[in-house]
Automatic annotation (TrEMBL):
Known EC number: 2.4.-.-
Organism the protein comes from: Methylobacterium brachiatum
Sorted UniProt keywords: Glycosyltransferase, Transferase
All copies of domain Glycosyltransferase 2-like, residue ranges: 7-96
Family: Belongs to the glycosyltransferase 2 family. WaaE/KdtX subfamily.
Protein name (Swiss-Prot/TrEMBL): Glycosyltransferase family 2 protein
Stretches the record annotates as Disordered: 248-269
Lineage: Bacteria, Pseudomonadati, Pseudomonadota, Alphaproteobacteria, Hyphomicrobiales
Amino acid sequence: MAPLPLSIFIIARNEADRIGATIRAVRDLTDDLVVVDSGSTDGTQALAASLGARVIHNPWPGYGPQKRFAEEQCRHVWLLNLDADEVVPTALAAEIRALFAAGEPSRPAWRIGIAEVFPGEGRPHPWAYTLTPVRLYRKDRGRYAPSPVHDRVALEPGVKPGRLRGVIHHFSVRSLGDQLDKLNRYSDQQADDLEARGVVIPTWRVFVELPGNFLKAYLGRRHLLRGTYGFLTAMNYAMSRHLRIAKHYERRRRTTTGPDRVDPPDPTF
């Protein structure tokens, strides 16, 4: 089938085990599939290129700036953004194609559900937690915000996005350990962002962040319906939110008390 007047872009780093499925699911939709890589060492670049992607290196500047850089590399005005661990199922690809069948889509931006898939699952659980960000849009009506930790499309005032029925499958968890490592690194970036923006979170949050966010994930995000793995994933989420606050508190404490004391060596030795 003929490609759509649509560019698809993906940011990646060390995603050779996942990006292949992402590209294969959408490469027939476009003649401009862009992968912006920030320094993979596992062969991600070669794999993406072998599947038809145009691979561009850009050192990591943060989530929003990297996606803005990727937008600028795209040839078409219509953009579809995917992460390297997301797969567009056949029904959603057909829905996107149908959207362009009569020419210009009726709205300049579209929300798409993104449902998490845990290891061992082939598709999202019927009650899987689902986000609905704007992922399909005209780049002259919206661009990714420049925040280094938040990746969301900032639309022009007055733009009301539509909503597609299909859902992206999000294979975000390789393992619990890998997830916790990723969340730990992300909490560093969040603490950096809070400091850069001069945001001060009250100290009492240190005591409630972990239990509060466990309940948010386990009950609010319905992880309790996912068995033991849902419980463990909710714990990881809660720990990551706790680490964000703990690191923010530690930095503030060091600013007010000075660097940790280091006693001089004992001259008798």
